[in-house]
């Protein structure tokens, strides 16, 4: 800017352009640097906090000489994790299997039922209240009952299914109803001609299926994915709750069962190791669901569009 | 210029008379007519009362009136989107609204695009619902997009477009079935004035190239005068036609038309008719 003020004879027309260019490059650069810095903070700060907590924990256990059956040091937990890996890994696989099987069944059931509800009022009125009852009854209270009537593995799976089912059902139902009203009118205008060969009720049904396929389905996708994110975490919780309720019985024993067992045997380091694996599993499920959702929505949905312009 | 304003609700024959007194450029054959249309909504609101409106081929008819005068309702009844409580829609050559779905293109006030589909797929929707394959439709899609000047944006998603561009996509979609009758429900009301002027010119050019009949709902006097061959002025409570104004200025029109004395005269006539429409309404 100095050059301009010291040279009043310069063509005045170029001045605004110059300053505009300057402002543009400056404002173009600053946000990017700001964004990089924010990224560093967002990753660095939690890591730093983690390091501080672990270091304090380790120091406290060493200095105060806390016995490891009361509070094991992080280093000891790591050692146990490595030493007991074959056992813990087997349990991890067991829990993962229950979680993903439960989640898959919940997706099929939830989406299937939501579609049925959207196609038929009669089905909606008769089934929805029971879906709500199933959801609001705490799963811990149902688990002992299920264990009486079902083999243990089926009961655990059913628990994971029950808790994961409802968020998918309710979100998908909401999504299927959230189409732009004008788009539905447009559909009425262009797509509502009943096929001539079909009887009236079948024609109406075909039109509803068409609306579902062309408009309601795509509109429901972001809602469904939101439900999936919640359901992924809940399926894990359902599996854990059922395993704990099942207690010591059975051969198939997941991470939650390892926790109970370690508690009985006062093997607290292993309890912690199992707990760490469980929460890592939860985090990974959440990240996987978020990535999946982003992948499907990044082209068009507001929730998946990055902030930068 | 023929303009009649009448103070009483029993003025519909006047509007009809004016449309029948049309001069040479509008001598197209009758296309569709609303006859004695009443519309009472479920909550008891009388939206339309004894509406008679005839549309001729090649016309550009504007429905002009204050909000609540039933102009959008009349358009929706014409499109078959909602049923009339009484009265009939007479299509030339017979047939009900369902039989004439193919002949109608509809443009809403909002662009109403599918956010999950790109521009080309949005334009494809009406053809797709008719069972036309994507391959067979691709030429129609391309030509509709180039009509509105968006051939470069076929692969873009609606969120990447400006408001005016979204509205163009919406218009291209309405044209994709090559309708005889294009119904537009305040399509430019939400746009800024510069964009609106541009789209007004585009619509005039489209009608000329495409040769379709247009019924256009608006609350802008200037827009209706600029675009129309005939302005139908409506009043509220109950919704009815109180005046018909033939805009006999030569077509095609361009922005020079806005500076002619005739344009000013028509605007004044339409404004006075609109003022008359408001005068009937003690609630405003």
Structure characterization notes:
The complex is a heterodimer of chains A (309) and B (284). With 309 residues, chain A is mostly helical. Chain A has two domains: 21-65; 76-304, MetI-like fold (Orthogonal Bundle), CATH 1.10.3720.10. Chain A is 81% helix and 0% strand. Chain A is built from eleven helices and no strands. Chain A has helices at residues 2-6, 14-64, 74-83, 85-119, 121-136, 139-149, 152-176, 181-191, 200-246, 255-264, 268-297. In chain A, helix 4 (85-119) packs antiparallel against helix 9 (200-246). Chain A is flat and about 85 Å long. Residues 1-27 of chain A have low confidence and may be disordered. Chain B has 284 residues and is of the alpha/beta class. Chain B has one domain (2-23, 30-113, 178-279): Rossmann fold, CATH 3.40.50. Helix content of chain B is 35%, strand content 23%. Chain B has eight helices and ten strands. Chain B has a seven-stranded mixed sheet, with helices on both faces. Chain B has a three-stranded antiparallel sheet with strand order 3-2-5. In chain B, strand 9 and strand 10 form a beta hairpin. In chain B, helix 7 packs across helix 8 (261-279). Chain B is globular, with a radius of gyration of 19 Å. The model of chain B is unreliable at 1-26 (pLDDT under 50). The chains are: A mainly alpha (309), B alpha/beta (284). At the A-B interface, helix 8 and helix 9 of A face helix 3 of B.
